[in-house]
Write a structure and sequence with these properties.
Blueprint (H helix, E strand, L loop, with lengths): L6 H11 L3 H21 L3 H10 L15 H9 L4 H8 L12 H21 L11 H9 L9 H11 L3 H13 L13
Helix pairs in contact: 1-3, 2-3, 2-6, 2-9, 3-5, 4-5, 5-6, 6-8, 6-9, 7-9
Bound molecules: fe (ii) ion (2 copies).
The site of one fe (ii) ion has 5 residues, from α2.
């Protein structure tokens, strides 16, 4: 690859390995959050978005700790993806042992689990509108172990801490980023 991968190439890579609608929506939600944070921090929106979009591209076929990202990073390197992007992607799973030592890596980790939790919080609302999800309600649900039990609460808290952002502000920020693509997430837009 002569230049860095484009959004189109990232999308093609994701779809080459993934047809599960939930995983595709997860990728789009994380992409939206990454782009919003890149703008916020004055970083490169295109590369942050691409990293968000592909971070789990190998997950459907390799869902275990001994395969997810082990396979994915090998494929990315074989295809000539930039090493700093590959490392940021790898670092979203602690078991890969890659330090989250860049703003891109810290942000990916911070938005990954939270985006799934926000989707779950939207889906239990009668209007299913992610834009209307309240920070207070998300914080309460984080303490409720029975709610969205697949989401690691520690990762959500640690993610905000490592990024150096207030948890409440972080929840609102990611919610608003995801709300901008509510249609693609198949969630209704803000009530008008
Ligand atoms: Fe992952
Ligand atoms: Fe993920």
């Amino acid at each position: 690859m002569s230049e860095t991968p484009t959004r189109d190439e990232a999308w093609a890579l994701l779809r080459e390995f993934t047809d599960n609608p939930s995983l595709i929506k997860h990728a789009l939600g994380v992409e939206a959050a990454m782009r919003a944070y890149a703008r916020h921090f004055g970083e490169d929106e295109a590369s942050w978005g691409v990293v968000g979009l592909v971070h789990d591209f190998d997950y459907q076929q390799n869902p275990t700790e001994t395969t997810h990202l082990h396979v994915g990073t090998r494929i990315l390197r074989e295809r000539g993806w930039p090493e700093d992007w590959v490392r940021a992607i790898a670092s979203h799973a602690d078991y890969m042992g890659v330090p989250r030592d860049t703003p891109m890596a810290k942000t990916l980790f911070a938005v990954d689990e939270l985006s799934g939790f926000l989707t779950a919080a939207a889906l239990v609302r009668p209007d299913k509108a992610i834009a209307e999800v309240q920070v207070k309600s998300v914080k309460k649900k984080l303490k409720d172990k029975a709610f969205a039990r697949g989401v690691n609460r520690d990762d959500v808290r640690r993610g905000a801490e490592e990024l150096g952002v207030d948890l409440g502000e972080h929840i609102a920020f990611v919610r608003d980023a995801m709300a901008t693509i509510a249609d693609q997430l198949e969630l209704p837009p803000r009530n008008s």
